[in-house]
Amino acid sequence: MMLEMIRKENDIKNLDERQLKELAGEIRQFLIGKISQTGGHLASNLGVVELTMALHLTLNFPKDKLIWDVGHQSYTHKLLTGRKEGFDDLRKYGGMSGFPKRKESDCDAFDTGHSSTSISAGLGYVAAREFMGESHSVVSVIGDGALTGGMAFEALNNASRLKSNFIVVLNDNNMSISENVGGMSRYLNGLRTAQAYTGLKKGVEDTLKRIPGTGDRIVSQIRKTKSGIKQLFVPGMFFEDMGITYLGPVDGHDLRKLVKVLSEAKRVDHAVLVHVITKKGKGYAPAEENPARFHGMGSFDIETGEPTAIETTDTYTQVFSKVLVDIAKRDDKVAAITAAMADGTGLSVFARRFPQRFFDVGIAEEHAMTFAAGLAAGGMKPVFAVYSSFLQRAYDQTLHDVCIQDLPVVIAVDRAGLVGSDGETHQGVFDLSFLSTIPNMTVISPKNRWEMADMLRFAFDLGHPVAIRYPRGSAYEGMKKFRAPVEYGKAEMLYEEEGIAVIFVGHMAELADRVRRGIKETGYSCSLINARFVKPLDTALLEELAKDHKLIVTIEENVITGGFGEQVMDYISRAGLNVRVRNIGIGDEYVEHGNVDVLRREVGLDKDVIVKQAVADYLVLQEQ
């Protein structure tokens, strides 16, 4: 087996052409086999096998720097740098990450997880290289989906000024997670092979430059006078006009051509973009036919491609989807926005039912938020459905464009809390903190599937900015008997006793209920409150609790810093209330990848730990 010959970085260079072809096939079979067991990002990795091999054949690791945009397509890179054994524990707690990690290998140049970042990071590496007087290559790989992000264009604009080599590889598979949309996608689809043009252009330039005294000036003038006809017929002119040499498109599954074009790119003395055409899911029919489903998935049956674990109840995302469609049937001003995540956020059903009111803006969360603000200002009722970790990118637009104007935008914050196997870059544990800092913002979180439906309807009726926060996975079906109407700024008292009060946020309902029962089993009374509103706080309730409770325990799946619990503690301190607060949440740290239940135990969101802490605190207070 060829894979057995790859023990460390650069070993691939010892293989001949026939062996390299065998290696590509073995890599695909290995990835399909392993990911079928562990879950992970299959389609994106199958699409870049030959591209990754070509990069490893032309670069020298770890001296040369390779930066993967997003990074979920780095599995072949990990195999070629000697991490084959790590795939048994891929994305498990304490195991190998599904993304590049500098602490994992010197061959991982930059930690990534969000899109549109690789060109900026690569430029930083180039600037550092020039300052240090070094000579290694720097390559940033970016997908056509990620190229719709504004940050990528900011970096390309900056890259055009370079006077030294920097290679950007554009991995063009016409997909982000869902199919790409917009002008850049249409532009890339229209490009054709440009090798003949590239060679002719280079020959003409070299000939003109040899004219004594005036050659350089003539070339410069020609570059400044790109005609409209040339724009129509010459591929890559968008990049060429920026001062970035364009090479391609090249077949991303032809190893010989890839090595040739990458070798040429290394000789360019400024920024160069290599346009590579790949097929997502290449080599595995189910992934080729439905790459979106094989983006980030759990274990599956190799023969059929079907998942081995199937949700038996609706997820929060599915509840959101169904209720949103129901609301939109009754109100034709309701519109929905996604940033290239229609399937993941549950908006694909809305898109089919109401195509005129559905907007996929591509990977552009900042634009999506301000676009939502414009829709609202124009009289529409928009909802922007976005993962918590990606909402971080639109903080300024939320503050500046939505909330200053107090516009009725609903932000559906999906994948909030610990999401598990994708790790630090994807954990949605900061939204309660950063959203709560914004004036005019209302932040709510449902305890179960029925409250999810009630809160979404409440959000559209509110007429002001509101974020509704919910997790990945099955919607909780407990506490069905508690369904008081959602009243602005009011928490929900579930069990009213005295001594200890537990207040939970959203999907911490099941854990909080178990904590209450645990406290009662030790012989102490315990009230249980569903916060419902993270902002505004139900301060009237806090003042009532302070009268007959000595301890308030807050539970949230968010960082403690700036979160719900700290807001409770701050109010109680400022109001001079005689009650102690114990905050349960995530500490000042990033949470790595792993099973969510395991991660919760690791961060202290564990019933036995919380009960022990609460009872110990209460005993101390009784003695005082």
Automatic annotation (TrEMBL):
Cofactor binding note: Binds 1 thiamine pyrophosphate per subunit.
Pfam families: DXP_synthase_N, Transket_pyr, Transketolase_C
Keyword Transferase: yes
Residues the entry annotates as binding Mg(2+): 144, 173
EC top class named in words: transferase
Assigned EC number: 2.2.1.7
This protein's GO CC annotations: cytosol
GO terms under biological process: isopentenyl diphosphate biosynthetic process, methylerythritol 4-phosphate pathway; terpenoid biosynthetic process; thiamine biosynthetic process
Pathway the protein acts in: Metabolic intermediate biosynthesis; 1-deoxy-D-xylulose 5-phosphate biosynthesis; 1-deoxy-D-xylulose 5-phosphate from D-glyceraldehyde 3-phosphate and pyruvate: step 1/1
Classification via InterPro entries: Dxylulose-5-P_synthase, THDP-binding, Transketo_C/PFOR_II, Transketolase-like_Pyr-bd, Transketolase_BS, Transketolase_C
Keyword terms, alphabetized: Isoprene biosynthesis, Magnesium, Metal-binding, Thiamine biosynthesis, Thiamine pyrophosphate, Transferase
Domain Transketolase-like pyrimidine-binding: from-to ranges: 314-478
Cofactor: thiamine diphosphate; Mg(2+)
CDD domains membership: TPP_DXS, TPP_PYR_DXS_TK_like
Catalytic activity from the UniProt record: D-glyceraldehyde 3-phosphate + pyruvate + H(+) = 1-deoxy-D-xylulose 5-phosphate + CO2
UniProt record similarity statement: Belongs to the transketolase family. DXPS subfamily.
HAMAP family assigned: DXP_synth
Described purpose of this protein according to its UniProt entry: Catalyzes the acyloin condensation reaction between C atoms 2 and 3 of pyruvate and glyceraldehyde 3-phosphate to yield 1-deoxy-D-xylulose-5-phosphate (DXP).
Stored NCBIfam families: dxs, PRK05444.2-2
Assembly, per entry: Homodimer.
Protein name stated in the entry: 1-deoxy-D-xylulose-5-phosphate synthase
Lineage: Bacteria, Bacillati, Bacillota, Clostridia, Lachnospirales
Encoding gene (name): dxs
